Fold this sequence. Notes:
Number of strands: 13
CATH superfamily: Lipoprotein localisation LolA/LolB/LppX
Radius of gyration: 17 Å
Mean pLDDT: 86
Largest sheet: 13 strands, antiparallel
Number of domains: 1
Strand content: 35-45%
CATH topology: outer membrane lipoprotein receptor (LolB), chain A
Helix content: 10-25%
Strand order of the largest sheet: 6-5-4-3-2-1-13-12-11-10-9-8-7
Distance between the termini: 27 Å
CATH class: Mainly Beta
Shape: globular
Number of helices: 4
Order of helices and strands: HHEEEEEEHHEEEEEEE
Amino acid sequence: MMRAFLGILLGTTLLTAGCAQWAPTPDAATRAEAQVLSQQMATQRAGYAGAAALFQAEVTSKGHLKLWPSFTAVLRYQAPDQLVLNGYSDLGLPLFNYTSDGDTYSLTLPDAEAPINGRLDSRRDPTARLLGDLSHLLDGAIGINLSGAELRRTKDGDWQEKDGPRFRLHEGHLSHLSLNHSNGKTTTVRFTDFRTLGSAEAPYRINVELAQFKVNLDIQVMEWNLAPS
Length: 229
């Protein structure tokens, strides 16, 4: 039943630990490659008016954050910055509702007396931090939302914007994404099992490691729905 809802929801609303080591000043060839890659990423991201994913997650937590052992979720995106993430238990009961608009977020939990609201750049609630990082699952299908800052190669061959996400490409796909947080902890997202989806390709297996919470999520995407611009 949830699969059937995925297309309707989309139509109606149309993550290597540690800090990256910067390479020396790039030569002309590397700068040209970086400019082409940055433009390709921007074009890929701009090519989608919306996206949605239905997925199941198995959760392993070795820290103090108490989470659900597993859940099913629907992630919806509407360009440029609208995100909605709804999670459900194995019995279909709601676990969370997370929304963001690019600047602020709101998190509703069944047992909470009121929604938890705040700014994305200062998420204090640990569950809100975790769910916010899960929005980067989209990057494997529609491209990274780069800021336009200079893109450089790191010493180990990855790409990174200064103070931005660090990422790696493999056979034309985004295979690895690292998000460095202000507390020095890193969220790492790994994308595998790419399959053809219309004129695009999208990952169906994703692993998310959140170092700050000692949490690992093994994600199986059951369905992608991409809406071109």
